[in-house]
Amino acid sequence: MLNCKDKSLIKDMKIILNTSVRCNQFLNKIVNVNYYSIFQVLYDLKNEYLLNDPIPITAFEHMYSINPIEALSRFYLENVDTLDYWEWLQAGGSAELAINFRNMNPNLTLIEAIEKAERLQEITNVLE
Description:
Layout: H1 8-11, H2 13-16, H3 20-29, H4 35-52, H5 57-66, H6 68-76, H7 82-90, H8 95-104, H9 110-127
Helix pairs in contact: 5-6, 7-9
């Protein structure tokens, strides 16, 4: 859902536009230079990249083993901090789980993935 009051997408601009090709695509799509237009183009590009140009799974798995915070940031195209990462771990998050969630819904955000992992963990606990 597009929410221009949420400034997190603008903070994620550096991650979303992480190559010169992506920066050029962004500049070419800007029609009006105002907050809403920039926000809309970033939102659309992020979803397009998540669907059509995601980080390769093998690269994500390798990066996750070295620096999971950076890997999650690139995987979800959003800023992930240490607190987000700890919440992900406490919810039972792993590289494999992120990949499974991505396969089910490429536009899933990390917060949604954490919530989904928590629900999955609760179900598993109930069944045990």
